[in-house]
Design a protein that fits this description.
About 60% of the residues lie in helices and about 10% in strands. With about 120 residues, it is mainly alpha-helical. It has one domain: Rossmann fold. It has a 3-stranded parallel beta sheet. The chain has a two-stranded parallel ribbon with strand order 2-3. Helix 1 packs across helix 2 and helix 5 crosses helix 6. The mean pLDDT is about 95.
């Protein structure tokens, strides 16, 4: 399964439910965009290092942005952007999940619920 950025942020904030969800997952995967979001929102070099160490320690696989993912994300923006406010970041994360035939775990049901071909698992902190 692919974890959305919000789930990892919950872990960083000390949410035990999010931490247990990640711990019990046998395969931990994120989009390269999630990795970039985590680093972008870090407030210090120490938090950058914490994020990198966390992803390494828990053996997260980071899936790259491919041409197919980019194309699918563009389609999602065209199809859902105006009606739901889907952002480019969420479109890329959803497209990464769909292109890799993996469910996406996210607490942001509003952002993803309208994407028909996405297998979404809702996380409630």
């Amino acid at each position: 399964m692919i974890f959305d950025t919000d789930v990892l942020i919950w872990v960083q904030r000390g949410n035990l439910k999010a931490a247990k969800l990640i711990e019990k997952s046998s395969k931990r995967i994120i989009s390269i965009f999630t990795y970039m979001e985590l680093l972008q929102h870090a407030s210090s070099k120490k938090q950058h290092q914490y994020t990198k160490s966390f992803l390494t320690d828990y053996n997260f696989e980071v899936l790259p942005l491919t041409e197919n993912i980019g194309h699918r994300a563009l389609i999602y923006i065209e199809e859902y952007g105006l009606s739901t406010g889907l952002s480019a970041a969420d479109a890329i994360i959803a497209a990464t999940a769909v292109e890799n035939n993996l469910p996406l775990v996210s607490g942001n049901q509003k952002h993803f619920k309208s994407i028909r071909d996405l297998s979404l698992q809702i996380f409630k902190p």
